[in-house]
Design brief:
With 356 residues, the chain is α/β, with parallel strands linked by helices. Helix content is 31%, strand content 19%. Helix 1 links the parallel strand 2 and strand 3. The relative contact order is 0.22. Keywords: Signal. It comes from Gordonia lacunae. This is Thiamine ABC transporter substrate-binding protein.
């Protein structure tokens, strides 16, 4: 989303991820390049590209500085809440964008900016290396995949072991009060991981998904606004050392937080995209940024910085990472068009089920 992520690791780590996601307050962060000789395209207001993104965006400054060195363009990063908030911001300003490109809108929210006409099509030549396989159906070139992660429930195994308790074996076990009361999940109306987990229950449980949520919340589960609060404040293995040993995060989060694991039957795939904003004053620079996000330098850094998988084939992963961040063998999945068509209805039904 990653709300992908960050996780108690260093960057998004949505599981510090989704990724410490150590979050910098949602604000404009300028990575200033001092190249006075750099030139942007004729439609640009200067030698700068502005990227709108979510709070969990994190890449090392040397990697980002490479963009300036390669293109002569400064990169200004403006963070704007969770993926859902980001999608709303972009969708409300078609043709009059607050930046040149946007990164972090995921497959659960992709339909919003597409339907709003807020994106300028561009098919990066680099996408043939793997990103094209994750393209939004029927919207070629409007959003380019950059990374993928899988939203899953995470378990603090150490917490259960220290109390000689058996942890849940499936997301279905959360209907039992002894597990529900130990769980922190995120609101699907405000959090992209929350949306993903809602879709997991819709896809896996069919007509029984509303009863599932009624039981989980009645059993004492805590519902919060976003991933950062759930993982970094409430999770017993998170940075805040909270009191919830079960939390909604990512399948990759255990790579960042030793002693934890993911319930791999509870996962929903989350693809994060970059897109060019319609009305940008620097279309050429934005295209260069899309290409850059698919470059080997960025792709190989994604697992360590944001705890997500790269989309480009043959990108090396950190040593031991696949073993710690196991890819689910099965995932609930729904097409973006189906999500778009039913999202508001499902949210209304979810609110009714949990009494919010």
């Amino acid at each position: 989303m990653n709300e992908l992520r960050t996780d108690g690791l260093s960057g998004r780590r949505r599981g510090r991820s989704r990724r410490t996601r150590v979050v910098v307050a949602a604000a404009a962060i300028a990575l200033v390049a001092t190249s006075a000789t750099a030139c942007a395209d004729d439609s640009s207001s200067g030698a700068e590209v502005t990227l709108l993104t979510h709070d969990s965006f994190e890449l090392p400054e040397p990697v980002l500085d490479a963009f300036r060195q390669e293109t002569g363009l400064a990169l200004k990063i403006v963070k704007s809440g969770d993926a859902g908030q980001l999608a709303s911001t972009v969708s409300l300003t078609p043709g009059a964008p607050k930046g040149d490109a946007v990164f972090g809108i995921d497959n659960t929210f992709a339909s919003r900016p597409i339907d709003a006409g807020a994106l300028e099509p561009y098919e990066s030549p680099a996408a043939a290396g793997g990103a094209a396989e994750y393209a939004v159906p029927g919207a070629a070139g409007q959003l380019t995949a950059v990374d993928r992660g899988d939203v899953c429930l995470n378990i603090d195994n150490g917490w259960f072991e220290s109390r000689s308790l058996t942890p849940p074996a499936s997301f279905r076990d959360l209907t039992r009060p002894e597990f529900a009361s130990l769980t922190a999940v995120t609101d699907p109306a405000t959090s992209s991981p929350g949306t993903a987990f809602l879709l997991t229950t819709v896809g896996a449980l069919g007509n029984g998904w509303q009863d599932y949520w009624k039981q989980v919340v009645a059993g004492g589960a805590t519902v919060v606004s976003g991933w950062e609060v759930a993982y970094n404040q409430l999770f017993t293995a998170g940075e805040g050392r909270g009191d919830k040993p079960i939390v909604l995060s990512y399948a990759s989060s255990p790579a960042a937080t030793p002693g934890t694991s993911a319930l791999l039957d509870s996962c929903f795939p989350q693809i994060e995209y970059i897109g060019i904003l319609k009305g940008t004053r620097n279309s050429t620079g934005a295209r260069k940024l899309v290409d850059f996000m698919l470059s080997p330098a960025v792709q190989k850094e994604l697992p360590s910085s944001m705890y997500v998988y790269p989309v480009q084939r043959d990108t090396p992963l950190p040593a031991g990472w696949p073993a710690r961040a196991e890819v689910p063998a099965w995932m609930s999945s729904l097409p973006p068009a189906t999500i778009a068509e039913n999202r508001e209805m499902w949210l209304d039904q979810w609110r009714a089920a949990v009494g919010r």
